[in-house]
Amino acid sequence: MSHNLKLVFHIFSSLLFAGYVYAHDAPKAKPTKTQQHVFIENRGQWTTDILFRAEMPQGYILVTQNSILYQLVGYEPIKSNLPAGSHTNPHVSASQNKLKGHVIKINFPQSNPDFQVVGKKRVQTRFQYLKDKNPEKWVQGAMAFQEIDFQELYPGIDLKLYFHQGLLKYDFVVQPGYNPNQISLQYEGIERMSVKDNFLILPTCLGNVFEKPPFAYQIHENGKKQIDCQFSLKKNKVKFDLKNYDSSKVLVIDPELVFSTYSGSLADNWGNTATYDEEGNFYSGGIVFGNENFPVTPGPFGTYAGGDKDILIL
Question: I need a labelling partner for 260 at 20 to 30 A (CA). Which of 33, 80, 167, 211 fits?
Answer without folding.
Answer: 80
